[in-house]
Design brief:
The protein is an alpha/beta fold. It contains 11 helices and 37 strands. The protein has a 17-stranded mixed sheet that branches. The model has no long low-confidence stretch (mean pLDDT about 90). Keywords: Membrane, Transmembrane, Transmembrane helix.
């Protein structure tokens, strides 16, 4: 019997089954593996794209940060500033170290900025929900929007390059100190006795008092806003009419002016329906606090607080004065915060002139006071707009500069130049009852003699424009291309105590002077023990320094002392159409004068100075007459007192015997007989603080020492276009809007149209 052995067949079937199962498993595994690989590839590309998008967003972030930094250091830019060939945005080399060893292809990242537009004024409506958390809410700002385009790139595992693109709108909002024709941090009084026209916006962080003498017209030609009330009146009655001669616009194109007289009454904030009635009459060109007008405050400075004369306490906080206060050393009790120090004009200056003493001279000697020049060491030695270097104590490091001759010194008798580098002390001739002035000047408003240092602006321009660093110029101590930034700060002593070796004066303190930590310039005494102020006199200023190749054109002169200007400044004095707003020509640059107080003197001061002691209307008419108008193209920042009301419980350092502020019509002060002559001021007039050197108001007989000019005052077209003087204090904020990712085609199109 044949026995069939099935074990071989079974073994074969099993093997086949195993092979089939293995094949199936293999297929399954292969399928799973293929799927995993595909998924891994998909995931890798997805992750790589996320990385590329992150890199694009990083590029945008860096561009916004770079722009913020640039705008912090400069007040204005040309429209093509970011164009290739100028100063475009670029990714920094540090990206290599940051992204080194990652899949981010940092070399392929790019950031581009578009046109820096001239901008426009925008009111950030506080009722708009979109502005609920905006720091500019309720304020007007000069707004520029710059397009940013960013590109990011990353490398996938297989070596493929994946790109991503993004765009954003970078918004720059400036509320500069010179954003108005007139800006007041306190109550604004405008009560002229002669015709007065104001071109440009006006704002006050207090009440607005308006009115004009019956023979005069007060005409506003642009928007007027106040956080308080609009009041037709005077804080202390001097002279105003019935409101029919105070005009505000109801339209600016064409211009239509409508006065405050409404039938038998005057329309101001006392009207029960003022918001509605004012809107109907002036179409929003006159607004008060009830209509939603909010305050405008300068960054880093505490709010100004005026003394409440109705209480016995002194509530005054004159914090804005720190703008012109010198930089106080470490551990000084009145030293300000770092952020505020950076806003001081002394910190921003490219050239510092310090009044010191000659250690070899005793007090009272004619050559006791002299001036030395200094510059700061900077973090970028080639960039005068970069931050100053601080020493181990946090103080700025100063290097002395050799000042060329005849820039600073005693004013010559023509008041067009200066002589030796010494102060001109006040001198009069006691042999005559009228005490002819032979040195310095006598200020009848202050009732004291004034010793003056003259600054010959024209001579300074000569050396700065020529970049004269030769032995006859700055003698190798001042490279204009690397160190001039258009800002000169003149520091007067804040104490009479000096270092016997260097001749430099110690810094004074606020102790015994005020409770808000302001250290003002000291008032000296003459050889007879009489009070004598030290002041800066600005001479020969028709043309300001304007060296070639400067990133930021213009000129700003600031000091902690009273300032006197003689003749026209930054203007040729030749009157033309709209000279209160339109520059003399295309070469005119923005300028600013910032001081404790500013007094404007005419071209006739060389003859009038001799009679500066005389006080009385008849003497004024005969001996301090002005025979021609002058023109000033500059922002003026000057301290001014508030009007002290009758019966004040406390005067806050003012005097009830000298109670008058005289308001903005006397913000620039006068000492001459200006009647029928015109003073044109093309710029911006700012009262940010009260004067610390001269806290007293004007006497009630103020027309015994001056009569007013015809005031032709306006907002400079340069400022209106966003071109401000160097170092202009700014309220500047940024906002980033409309971030979105882009396709490459859209990015390329946007790049083509970027400039």
């Amino acid at each position: 019997m044949k026995i069939i052995d099935n074990r071989k067949e079974n073994r074969g079937s099993a093997l086949a089954a195993v092979i089939m199962i293995a094949a199936v498993i293999g297929l399954i595994v292969a399928s799973i593996f293929e799927g995993t690989v595909t998924e891994m590839k998909v995931n890798d590309r997805y992750v790589t794209r996320i990385k590329a998008k992150t890199a694009a967003e990083t590029a945008i972030e860096y561009g916004a940060s770079d722009l913020s930094s640039r705008f912090e250091r400069r007040s204005s830019f040309p429209t093509d500033e970011l164009k290739t060939g100028k100063n475009p945005l670029t990714m920094p080399d540090t990206m290599g170290s940051f992204y080194g060893g990652t899949d981010i292809m940092w070399q392929k990242m790019a950031i581009n900025g578009g046109v820096v537009p001239p901008g426009e004024w925008v009111y950030f409506d506080p009722t708009d929900p979109a502005n609920e958390f905006d720091p500019m809410r309720g304020r007007r700002a000069y707004v520029r929007e710059i397009v940013l385009l960013g590109k990011g790139a990353a490398k996938a595992a297989n070596g493929d390059e994946i790109n991503a693109f993004a765009t954003e709108l970078f918004q720059v909002r400036d509320a500069p100190l010179f954003a108005n024709a007139i800006f007041y941090n306190a109550d604004l009084e405008i009560n002229p006795g002669v015709n007065m026209d104001i071109y440009g916006p006006v704002h006050t962080n207090g009440d607005l008092y308006v009115g004009a003498k019956s023979v005069a017209n007060l005409r506003f030609h642009d928007k007027v806003t106040t956080t308080g009330d609009v009041i037709h009146g005077e804080k202390k009655p001097v002279h105003i009419s019935d409101g029919s001669n105070v005009w505000f616009p109801s339209s600016t194109n064409p211009e239509i002016l409508r006065n405050m007289r409404d039938g038998n009454s005057i329309l101001d904030s006392s009207d029960a329906n003022f918001p509605e009635d004012a809107s109907e009459r002036w179409n929003g060109y006159l607004q008060d606090g009830e209509m939603g007008v909010g305050p405008q405050n300068v960054v880093a400075f505490d709010d100004y607080v005026a003394d409440d004369y109705a209480t016995a306490a002194n509530e005054k906080t004159n914090s804005g004065y720190a703008l012109i206060e010198p930089l106080l050393p470490t551990n000084h009790a009145d030293r300000k915060s770092d952020s505020l120090r950076e806003q001081k004009m002394a910190y921003k200056a490219g050239l510092v002139l310090k009044v010191v003493s000659d250690p070899n001279r005793s007090h009272g000697h004619d050559e006791y006071y002299t001036v030395k020049a200094y510059k700061y060491s900077r973090t970028n030695a080639d960039n005068p707009l970069s931050n100053p270097v601080l020493d181990a104590d946090g103080n700025l490091t100063l290097t002395e500069v050799t000042l060329p001759p005849n820039i600073v010194g005693d004013p010559e008798s023509d008041f067009l130049s200066v002589g030796d580098n010494v102060i001109e002390q006040y001198e009069d001739d006691d042999d005559y009852w009228w005490k002819p002035t032979e040195g310095g000047l006598y200020d009848n408003r202050e009732n004291r003699g004034v010793a003056t240092f003259g600054l010959d602006v024209g001579k300074l321009k000569q050396y700065i424009d020529a970049k004269d660093n030769t032995a006859t110029g700055f003698d190798g101590t001042y490279d204009v291309d690397k160190e001039w930034n258009g800002i000169v700060y003149v520091e007067f002593p804040t104490s009479s105590t000096r270092d016997s070796t260097s001749g430099e004066f110690d810094y004074g303190t606020s102790s015994g002077k005020n409770t808000y930590n302001i250290v003002p310039a000291v008032i000296d005494t003459d050889s007879e023990g009489e009070s004598m102020e030290l002041a800066l006199m600005v001479l020969n200023g028709k043309e300001i320094p304007d060296p070639s190749g400067m990133e930021q054109p213009g000129f700003t002169l600031a000091t902690n002392a009273p300032m006197y200007t003689v003749g026209s400044f930054n203007a040729n004095g030749v009157f033309h159409t709209n000279d209160a707003t339109a520059p003399d020509d295309n070469d005119e640059k923005p300028a600013a004068l910032i001081a404790d107080t500013i007094t404007v003197l005419s071209d006739e001061w060389d003859g009038n100075r001799r009679y500066s002691y005389l006080d009385g209307r008849s003497y004024l008419d005969d001996y301090r007459d002005v025979s021609g108008g002058i023109e000033i193209s500059a922002a003026l920042v000057s301290g001014t007192p508030n009007t002290v009301p009758s019966g004040a419980a406390h005067t806050g350092g003012a005097s009830s015997s000298r109670p008058l502020s005289l308001g903005v019509v006397n913000l620039p002060r006068f000492l001459e007989y200006w009647t029928s002559e015109t003073l044109t001021i093309r710029g911006s007039m700012v009262s940010l603080y009260e004067s610390e050197v001269r806290p007293l108001g004007a006497p009630t007989n103020f027309n015994d020492y001056y009569t007013p000019p015809i005031r032709d005052w306006g907002f400079s077209d340069l400022f209106k276009a966003g071109n401000y003087p160097p170092g202009t204090p700014l309220v500047r904020t940024y906002r980033r809007l409309m971030y979105e990712e882009m396709e490459e085609t859209s990015y390329n199109t946007a790049m083509t149209n970027l400039h």
